[in-house]
Write a structure and sequence with these properties.
CATH architecture of chain B: Orthogonal Bundle
Structural class of chain B: mainly alpha
Distance between the termini of chain B: 43 Å
Largest sheet of chain A: none
Helix content of chain B: over 70%
CATH architecture of chain A: Orthogonal Bundle
Number of domains of chain A: 1
Mean pLDDT of chain B: 90
Distance between the termini of chain A: 40 Å
Low-confidence stretches of chain B: none
Number of helices of chain A: 13
Order of helices and strands of chain A: HHHHHHHHHHHHH
CATH class of chain A: Mainly Alpha
Mean pLDDT of chain A: 90
Structural class of chain A: mainly alpha
Number of strands of chain B: 0
Low-confidence stretches of chain A: none
CATH class of chain B: Mainly Alpha
Largest interface: A-B, 96 and 87 residues
Oligomer: heterodimer
Shape of chain A: globular
């Protein structure tokens, strides 16, 4: 094949794949602005005849979507902040501090990565029940505040910090925590961003655990709420698409903003995983 | 420096949380799976009895468990190769020196991966709609008969697989792309001098160099696809005719709809064991088939 033709073939194929991939998302947005019932016609319309915000109004005023988005935001933010503190300090220690049993503990941590969370889900639910955390934000947050994966990610990244830097600070008489906060943390900025966006996205998108722990409507997260809504309003496609838009948009925007860090973390986590 | 205790202040909080909310539940799960923990035990633990392997035996004698396992294996067996194939194709296109606007395409193809499953499953439930769905509209244009995607037990799982491929291939694409980029260009140059065709280069350079990465993404995807749950929960509720009940969906029903928590835990362990077994077999096959170390 000659070069111009090959160029067209490669870029044409890419454009086609991108079209197929992006179309459902674009269509979701389009349908969310249609009049109720408009989307249930054949052939399905591509664009709203008269764009309306009625579905969003219904979603926030009648279905209480604002509340669910707030719950999601609160839970995902709490998980992100607390897990950053725990995973960063532990990951750093596994990479740079000497303590007995370090290697063995780290091996156990790697083994834990292989166990899917569903295995312990039911006892965890019973624990939450006994701790009176069922139907509370705490019940959703607590299991996510430390992850073996997060510790692993921080450790891999932290190993690139030169030991000399830490030794010099120790010779100056700085304490370990002071070194960690003043010297190490600023160097870890990229991995902090990576870890933050990972935790936030996985917490926001999580479905099964919030579904189990939050039966009380008032505390449900956005994905759980729209799943429940979709079972009640099977026919209201326009309303459901508006629900999908407000659930997807925040994390999609966050991803677009921080995608460099996200993809770096994805590669760091997989290469030696 | 009496620093021997200081490191523990760094790791102790994280290890305590992991111990309490991950390790302990997993260990407790094993114990729980040997009991008849149900709604009565939930009310009063005095009603709890040790039944040893009864839960496992009972589960293995339930036709719906086997159906859910077959459904899950169908999803994994078809969904994983399809996801990997699309991911590899997309990665090859993105890695081509002829590709323009790579940053845009990479982001676009990866975007579905970061969306909430539930939200995008709703889009596909609508796209797959028998009467108003755009997919059937497209089929009609091609002169094909409409398909009752989510209502016909033969088509429900393929529909879920198509959705899963759309949602997930971007993840593997990114990892495979990194793998492609790490293949030394000199290898290709040498092959070109020897007169190797594009296909020859792909078979004798790209695929062998990509082997370890391909194996890695296969294992990650297989393990992930065995956890099928949210897709059938939102799109089909396990129907029609229980053709989309996955093992995890069955566990959820046993545990949180019928409150047979002991039995549900046994199902969770069985799923874990099956996943481990399948990934082990894959690893062994890959090691035997490969020339170099993997």
């Amino acid at each position: 094949m000659n070069r111009p033709l090959a160029r067209i073939a490669v870029n044409g194929a890419l454009a086609l794949v991108a079209l197929v991939v992006l179309f459902p998302l674009a269509w979701m947005a389009s349908v969310s602005f249609m009049q109720p019932g408009e989307a249930s016609t054949f052939p399905p319309p591509l664009l709203p005849a008269h764009a309306t915000l009625a579905n969003y109004r219904e979603l926030f005023e009648r279905a209480g979507m604002g509340r669910y988005l707030f719950n999601s935001l609160l839970i995902a933010s709490a998980v992100t902040l607390i897990s950053l503190a725990f995973n960063l300090s532990a990951g750093y220690a596994f990479a740079k501090l000497q303590f007995t049993g370090r290697e063995r503990l780290f091996q156990l941590l790697l083994a834990a990565l292989l166990i899917p969370t569903q295995v312990g889900m039911i006892p965890l639910f019973l624990m939450m029940k006994w701790m009176h955390l069922v139907n509370s934000y705490g019940g959703v947050i607590v299991p996510g505040i430390t992850t073996a994966f997060g510790i692993f990610l921080v450790r891999q990244y932290t190993r690139s910090i030169p030991d000399d830097l830490l030794e010099a600070a120790r010779l100056d008489g700085a304490g370990e925590w002071r070194i960690f906060v003043r010297i190490v943390l600023p160097l870890l900025k990229p991995i902090i961003a990576t870890l933050a966006i990972f935790s936030f996205l996985s917490s926001w998108n999580d479905f099964m655990w919030p579904l189990i722990v939050l039966s009380d409507q008032a505390r449900q997260t956005a994905p759980v709420a729209i799943a429940a809504l979709s079972r009640e309003h099977v026919q209201d496609n326009e309303l459901m698409m508006a629900g999908s838009v407000v659930t997807v948009l925040p994390v999609l925007a966050l991803f677009l903003l921080l995608q460099r860090y996200y993809i770096q973390g994805l590669l760091l986590g997989s290469v030696k995983g | 420096m009496s620093a021997s205790r200081v490191p523990w202040t760094f790791v102790a909080p994280a290890l305590l949380v992991l111990g309490a909310f991950f390790v302990l539940p997993v260990v407790a799960a094993l114990a729980l799976s040997f009991t008849d923990f149900d709604l009565y035990a939930l009310a009063d633990t005095k009603n709890l009895r040790l039944v040893w392997l009864d839960n496992y035996i009972e589960v293995l004698r339930t036709p719906l468990f086997w159906k859910s396992l077959v459904n899950t294996l169908y999803f994994v067996g078809v969904g994983v190769p399809l996801s990997l194939g699309v991911a590899l194709g997309a990665a090859l296109l993105l890695n081509s020196p002829l590709a323009r606007a790579r940053g845009f395409f990479r982001t676009a193809l990866f975007a579905p991966y970061v969306t909430a499953v539930v939200a995008v499953a709703l889009i596909f439930r609508y796209l797959f709609h028998t009467r108003y769905g755009l997919i059937n509209y497209g089929l009609e244009h091609l002169g094909l008969a409409p398909i009752d995607w989510l209502g016909d037990p033969h088509w429900s799982m393929p529909a879920i697989i198509l959705f899963a491929v759309w949602k997930n291939f971007g993840y593997n694409m990114i990892i495979l792309l990194a793998g492609l980029q790490s293949i030394p260009q000199e290898l290709y140059e040498a092959a070109r001098i020897d007169g190797a065709s594009a296909w020859g280069q792909f078979r004798h350079i790209t695929l062998p160099s990509l082997r370890p990465v391909l194996l890695l993404v296969t294992i990650i995807t297989v393990a992930g696809y065995f956890q099928l749950f949210a897709e059938p929960y939102v799109m089909t509720r396990g129907d029609p005719l229980q053709s989309t009940v996955s093992v995890l969906y069955y566990m959820f029903q046993q545990g949180f709809e019928w409150w047979n928590l002991g039995r549900a835990t046994a199902i969770a362990f069985l799923l874990f064991a099956i996943t481990l077994l399948v990934t082990r077999v894959l690893l062994r096959v890959a090691r035997r088939g490969g020339e170099g170390p993997v």
